[in-house]
Amino acid sequence: MQRWIGFGLVCAALFVAGCSGDKSSTDGATSSAPNADGSKKLRIAVIPKGATHEFWKSVHEGANKAAAEDGAEVVWAAPQKEDDKEQQGQIIETQVTNKVDGIVLAPLDASAMVAPVTSAIDAKVPVLIIDSALNGANTVSFVATDNEKGGHLAGAEMARLLGGKGQIVVLRYAEGSASTMAREKGFIDEIKKNPGIKIVSDNQYAGATVETAQKASENLLSPLKKGDGLSIDGIYTPNESSTFGMLRVLQDNKWTGKVKFVGFDSSPKLIDGLKANEINALVIQNPRKMGYEGVKTIIKYIKGDKSVPKTVDTGAALVTKENLTKPEIAETIAPPKE
Fold first, then answer.
1. Taking 70 as the threshold, does the pLDDT of residue 241 lie above it?
2. Is 232 part of a structural domain of the chain?
3. Domain region containing 153
4. Which of 123, 147, 237, 258 has its CA 20 to 30 A from that of 226?
5. Mean pLDDT in residue range 197-225
6. Residue 161 within any structural domain of the chain
């Protein structure tokens, strides 16, 4: 019976890998045709945390650009939900079975993904980590935002908006997600530099989707209602889905503009919120650069360059309504091409 259960899990992972791809990706187990110059076309599996957020679509865009430049091919294989650690582990195993030349992974959990990554490395498939750190394992490199620094940017902006005094809440993302945990830590450490600001809640979690984030936001803010507003002065959220879920609740209750709101990441809807003064600031990453540098770096490694950097900081910036039109900001927040 166990044999058939295991076979079913592998089949499910194969199905997900296929359904999550697009015309620029592949999930086949056979080798691709060689490049025009006769060189082998490397197949790089890029395994994000999910596929629905604008962030991951931009990562995909950057990864495809890098692969095209180097005559390689991206195998895009995403879990259906951003909290399905078991499925992400299965996808890693499937791509090893499919004999990809390398894996670029955004681990859903800093500890849970160590075992499948170690198994891949033991099978001579190099693994590079993007976005969110992994505890241990001899990976090629870590290509990501300096997330703690990004949290400090958000905290400094919140302190500026509040004039150094007030009460705020932090809606966390998910336990085990190293990237958002670092953003939360950076924010809280920065706020602690301002004794006039008190964090009244920082133990609630948004969860993996906009829907769970919206529910968590409602539960967090409901006891804080005061008249037609809130008894707090500021709100911080550490990623795209938590920020959008919170924005929905503020909009639904007509609380936008009555509280300072600093979020993380961007999407067209979040940028609309910024333009409408419903969000005061966003800390943005450069997901295209993350996907691009991740694929570029692992290709260099596979081709024999063992001196690739162990860490690559892809940068973060604070975005406000006032600096939206700056070329470097406008280019980074542009929605991914369909």
1. yes
2. yes
3. 147-285
4. 237
5. 97
6. yes
The per-residue pLDDT for 33 is 64
Structurally, how many domains does the chain consist of? Answer: 2
> Could you tell me if residue 249 is left (phi over 0), alpha (psi between -120 and 50 degrees) or otherwise beta?
alpha
Count of residues for the chain?
Answer: 338
Q: Do 123 and 159 fall into the same domain?
A: no
* Average pLDDT of span 59-81: 97
Q: Between the CA of residue 54 and those of 17, 58, 203, 227, 305, what are the distances in Å?
A: 19, 6, 26, 36, 32
Strands (E), the chain: 43-47, 73-76, 102-105, 127-130, 142-144, 166-172, 197-205, 225-226, 229-230, 234-236, 260-264, 281-285, 311-313, 316-319
The percent of residues in the chain predicted with pLDDT above 90, rounded, is 86
**Are 122 and 153 contained in the same domain?**
no
Would you say residue 331 lies in a domain? Answer: no
Is 185 a residue whose pLDDT tops 70? yes
Residues 77 and 205 in one domain: no
The answer to whether the beta carbons of residues 262 and 32 sit under 8 Å apart is no
162 plus 204 within the same structural domain: yes
268 and 298 in a single domain? The answer is no
Helix (H, G, I), strand (E, B) or coil at 205: strand
